[in-house]
Amino acid sequence: xxxxxxxxxxxxxxxxxxxxxxxxxxxxxPKSEEESKKIPPVEFIAEEFLPNVxxxxxxxxxxxxxxxxxxxxxxxxxxxxxxxxxIAIENLSSRHVAKVELHKMTSDDGEVFTCLCEGATxxxxxxxDKLWVEYNIAKKGIVATIPDRDTFYFCRDNSVASxxxxxxxxxxxxxxxxxxxxxxxxxxxxxxxxxxPFGWSPFRQSS
Length: 207
Description:
By secondary structure, this protein is an alpha+beta fold. Helices cover 25% and strands 28% of the residues.
């Protein structure tokens, strides 16, 4: 149990919640009945992050093998599920934040940043609050994108050019055939939001 808790981590996963994929811009996108069944099986430990986007708890079972945790796995742990997610996020920060390399991409008057970190699932870094402390970045006003499991870019919300560049990156990754075949997460931009359970909510640009 102790080793499992030390190895506890999480991944974002995309699942369709119902027959209509909830579009965060206010439109429902019809989905087939077969697609509508792709929701997290009840036995897995999962928390909804956004409509159709879930956080799944897992442990590294050795040799690079990831084991998805089920309710049966944690029956005798005596730790509430929500507390396990906090532990997973703390583990992420302690393991990876110090190894993160921050890179800037510019175009016209816009600039966005991305993180590179060997051994980390980059999208998961979105929830590592220590990242912003490590780089002395004020999290308030940050807009981010995680179109797939291995992509994480962000910028400030006060630059239209930067937001346009962020959307371009998101759309490029989202529509890449390799992304479609692998691990899509969400095409929607996310805004830092201290009132949200996981610190992020859908970004709504001011008109």
